[in-house]
Design brief:
Strand content: 15-25%
Largest sheet: 8 strands, mixed
Number of helices: 12
Distance between the termini: 56 Å
Number of strands: 20
Radius of gyration: 23 Å
Shape: globular
Structural class: alpha/beta
Amino acid sequence: MTTFTHETDYLIVGSGAVGMAFADILLTESDANIIIVDRFHKPGGHWNVAYPFVTLHQPSSFYGISSRELSKGCIDKVGLNKGLNELASGAEVSAYFDDVMREQFLPSGRVQYFPMCDYKGNGKFVSSLTGETHQVKVNKKTVDATYLNTHVPSTHTPNFSIASDVQFMPLNDLPKVTQPPAGYVVIGGGKTGIDAILWLLEKNVDPDEIQWIMPRDAWLIDRQNTQPTEEFFFESIGAQAAQMEAIAQSSSVEDMFDRLEKAGVFLRIDTNVQPQMFHGATVSQMELAELRKVKNIIRKGRVTSLESNQIVLEKGTIPTSTKHLHIDCSASALVNLETKPIFEGDLITPQTVRSYQPVFSAAFIAHIELAYPEEAKNKICNVVPLPNTLTDWLRLTAAFMMNQYIWSQDDNLRKWLLENRLDGFSQLMRSVKEDEVEKQAVVQRMRENAQPAMGKLQQYLAQIQAAAS
């Protein structure tokens, strides 16, 4: 079979949100040519296989690519996100990335797009439909936009055994239910489990008909504090100031989390259970009130097997039946928690350089690739690790604060951040006028506590490392 040969400046592997955000900056800030390769039939990555009622967990106003708005600029008027900036649905996000490819990238004449292709490494990829082989000569760099690959329920293989007569389905199939089961068993305590519970309750399922298997409780972020628009200044920037104060004034890691909760930075479903997990999930106060209606929460570790009459967990068993419906929400969205240098010779591996924001991070990294000398790039782009445990939150917060400090010392970078639509918070900070006394006081609190907070984080991390060794 013929091998097709191509030449390009940048080869981007993956047309999910990260790959698209990276390509967008290359197109708007350089004259580079790009080849994008992806295994899906259209752009959007995991959004192609996400469950039908998924929405963003963060405001639409800072998601997508830098050069095109996703948000309609609305405040939600109904539902559990009422009063907050809109959250795009999965269908809206998927259509958005499709439009970006068809209306912006391809008409530029500088992007070639190869969907339904399997990347083999070293510039080689193969069509999943025809078997044709393609070889790319890359003049500048390859961008591995698949490193932070997101796992979703529909493509996840459970790591427990399931008896053949047990009713079991991924979250994606929940809207296809045609007969009421004896009860619903939601397996998984993360964002997906939260979405499953909220969907069932919204559809008038009795909370007492739901069992929620929660291997670990999680600290959650109040979504009100993530709003990047001016009317939410005191919530968003105020929460950042409160976070700095809570860390700076704390006397131990436990005390720090207590203070963060009292300050409204963190939430938890059950105030009597100490969380052991942090994945950066956001909830509104209305969603939290709904989640608390489910009283039958099983805290016996992970599921090891689903049997016809019982569920076996790490720390015990609970009864079930073949008439119960078991919903798999056990996929961990991000399974690659290892970090590596973002810039390595002719390979770029986008990772988060700001907490919880892989899309902003991809755009930022692309800008650094184009605007800065090779030896400076990794110093500007320190990886902010993805969180799993509570200790990870300390690490990511310290890394994020270090990056913010480095960026604040560079006039050109400050200007770029201020003008980039994916960075709502720089604009929010810059919008504060001299005569706005209350807002100035919030900014001052944040600045005064930043250095002491950084000192505390480093102290706690050193203690944790010493205890582990």
